Amino acid sequence: TANRAMEAWLNSNYPGTPNATAIQGIMKAERERARLLCHDLGIEEKPMSYTEMRINALRLATEAAGYSHAEAEEAANRAFGVWLQERNAAGEKFLFPGAITALEEVKSMFPGVLFGAITNGRANVTEM
Predict the structure, then answer these.
(1) Residue 81 CA to chain centroid, in angstroms?
(2) Residue 19's domain is classified under what CATH number?
(3) Which domain of life is it from (predicted)?
(4) Structural domain includes residue 52
(5) Confidence band, pLDDT 50/70/90 cuts, at residue 26
(6) Domains held by the chain: number
(7) pLDDT tens-digit profile of 32-69?
(8) What is the SS3 assignment for 7-72?
(9) CB-CB contact of 76 with 55 (8 Å)
(10) Cα 14 to the chain's mean position, in Å?
(11) Is 121 inside a domain boundary?
């Protein structure tokens, strides 16, 4: 999965960084910290995307492992790229057998048909 690929890349390129489960925990903790801070300051909470949360958690995790801020920034962005690439690759891995053939048949029977897709997260359906 995407988390395992990201974790393997981090371990290979930035030894000592936390595993994917710990990074998920950092994401949750940071989201809660931001919520509480906004509440305490009496300001409206700014929505944060999962992309922002994941990159921020990766940076924090890498810094906590002893890497410089600049190294952590680079690690976070590159690790997120690995995660996103694997996330998009998952589309082919988890298609039902015969799904592509069935869609091709529908397309040949109804040339003007348009297909849509809904994802549950940060997937790019044009890359799947």
Answers:
(1) 8
(2) 1.20.120
(3) Eukaryota
(4) yes
(5) very high
(6) 1
(7) 888 888 888 888 888 888 899 999 999 999 999 999 99
(8) HHHHHHHCCCCCCHHHHHHHHHHHHHHHHHHHHHHCCCCCCCCHHHHHHHHHHHHHHHCCCCHHHH
(9) yes
(10) 18
(11) no
C-alpha 121, offset from chain centre:
8
Which range has the worst mean pLDDT, 4-13, 61-70, 114-123? 114-123
Q: Is the pTM of this model over 0.90?
A: no
pLDDT band at 73 (very low <50, low <70, confident <90, very high): very high
Q: Is residue 128 part of a domain?
A: no
Residue whose pair of structure tokens reads 């053939």 in the numeric block:
101
pLDDT at 1: 85
Rounded to the nearest 10 degrees, the angle between the axes of helix 2-13 and helix 20-41 is 100
The answer to whether residue 111 sits within a structural domain is no
* Number of alpha carbons in the 13 Å side-chain half-sphere of residue 89: 10
